[in-house]
Every structure is written in C-alpha cells, then in structure tokens.
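Figure 6 in text form: structure in, sequence out.
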C-alpha cells in the first residue's frame, strides 16, 4: 500500500529503506490484477489438483473467472497510514465488477495504528484484521516497532478488543521470532497472559501466527532456531492460545515477509 514505509521497524528491509510515497487505489488493485493474470496464463501441471476458485459469500460477490482466492494487505508499507486508498482498493476487490472477493477473503495487516483500527471497525465491510505484534511488552515493542511509542500495547489491545466485539471476527497476531530478542519461554508466557487477559477472557477469539524472521542483508536480527520456535509455540498452546507456524515463502529471492525493498 506504500512505496517503502515510514514506521521504520529495525528488522525489516522495507522499514530500513525509508518512505517513498503512498500508492493510489489503482496501484494497489493493479498488483492483484497482475497476479490474477499471471496465474491464469500459467499452465497447471496435469497431476496438480485444480486451484480453488473464488466462491461468492453474499451481497456483491460472485464466482469470477479468477484463481485469486485471498488477498492480504501487508508490507511493504503500513495500510492504515494510507487509509483512503487502501479502503477504496478493498471495495474494488470486493465489488462484483472488480474481483468479487468476499470480506472473509480479504485481510488487512497493521502494526497497530489505533485510530485506523477504530475506523476499520466502523466500516460496513468487515475484513479480517491481522496485527504484527512481535513483542509482549512495551519496553521491547518500542524498540522493534517504533510506532508502539505512540500507540502502546494497552491502547492497541483495547482497539483490538473493540474490533473483535464489533465484528465478531477472530484477530490474528503475527509474531516474527528473532533469536535471543523475543523468543524466550518467559516472553511466550507474557504473550499468552496478554492475549488471555485482553481478549480471550472477554470472549474475543484470537490466534497467533508465528513466523521465524526472514533475515535481511543489513539487519543484525536473526531467525530463532526451529527448536526455540517450537518451544515458544508449545508454551502458547499450553496457555490455550491457538497458534500456527508460518512456512516461509520467497525467502531465497528476498521477497519474504519483511524482506521487500525497492531497487533502482
Ligand atoms: S514491518 Fe511493516 S510496518 Fe514495520 S517497517 Fe516493515 S513494512 Fe513498515
């Protein structure tokens, strides 16, 4: 949704490359169009199961001639710092004359722009919300996600709770596991307590998506070992927090989550 990103997270190549400009709604939709065309004209191996097609889920939705089934708005850029264009793009993706994607097939990922989450909860179309958390305490999050200084965890969790209660939708928390930084068992315990107390105990479902960090050339941050990542996951599950471990894709071409940056 943006060229570069103004948030400046120190482990993210986009954040380290600075901010260029906001994308227009057309430029955001164009990325989906590009991949819709690429997939459509890429021959599928005869033995591969056919890809699922978009299925209509209500008003304004249809089953178009497209193999794009889900769209996640995430880096590069912070979508809620380019709200108008992002929302216009979402409406186009949802519209029957656009891609006809159901609201449940569109997810917006944010590092926690609280006024943006509040605004999102008032929209008629209730898309999925993913929050890049990466730390269970303000002290650590202030370093990893500089925007936390403006919107600390207490305010972020309150906005997430309101979003969950207004929309009835389960919130995903993304947590990039970094070796020796945020992957200890004590930090897993703190994360579990934070989510239990802020959301689960008040009836807001949530889930944690664990992502061993995708390394970047300039960053000193390294991914957690598989052993630490699995121990972290087990501790969260012991605290009844649903989790998944994300499989990294595109890392070899520096196109994984947190690796994207512009080249001249
Ligand atoms: S992690 Fe997301 S919010 Fe942080 S700098 Fe990278 S793109 Fe921006």
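Output sequence:
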């Amino acid at each position: 949704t943006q060229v570069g990103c103004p948030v400046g997270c120190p482990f993210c190549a986009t954040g380290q490359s600075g901010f260029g400009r906001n994308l227009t709604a057309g430029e955001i939709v164009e990325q989906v169009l590009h991949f819709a065309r690429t997939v459509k004209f890429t021959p599928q191996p005869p033995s591969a199961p056919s890809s699922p097609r978009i299925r209509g889920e209500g008003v304004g939705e249809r089953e178009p001639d497209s193999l794009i089934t889900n769209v996640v708005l995430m880096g590069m850029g912070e979508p809620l710092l380019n709200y108008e264009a992002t929302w216009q793009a979402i409406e186009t993706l949802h519209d029957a004359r656009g891609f006809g994607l159901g609201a449940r097939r569109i997810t917006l990922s944010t590092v926690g722009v609280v006024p943006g989450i509040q605004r999102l909860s008032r929209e008629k179309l209730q898309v999925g919300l993913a929050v890049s958390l990466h730390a269970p305490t303000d002290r650590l999050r202030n370093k990893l996600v500089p925007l936390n200084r403006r919107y600390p965890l207490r305010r972020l969790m309150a906005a997430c709770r309101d979003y969950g209660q207004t929309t009835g939708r389960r919130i995903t928390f993304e947590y990039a596991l970094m070796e020796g930084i945020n992957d200890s068992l004590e930090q897993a315990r703190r994360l579990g307590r934070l989510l239990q107390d802020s959301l689960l105990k008040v009836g807001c479902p949530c889930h944690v998506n664990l992502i061993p960090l995708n390394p970047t050339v300039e960053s000193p941050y390294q991914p957690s070992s598989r052993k630490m990542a699995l121990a972290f996951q087990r501790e969260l599950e012991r605290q009844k927090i649903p989790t998944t471990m994300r499989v990294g894709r595109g890392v070899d071409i520096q196109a994984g989550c947190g690796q994207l940056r512009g080249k001249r």
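Caption detail: The two ends are 19 Å apart (CA to CA).
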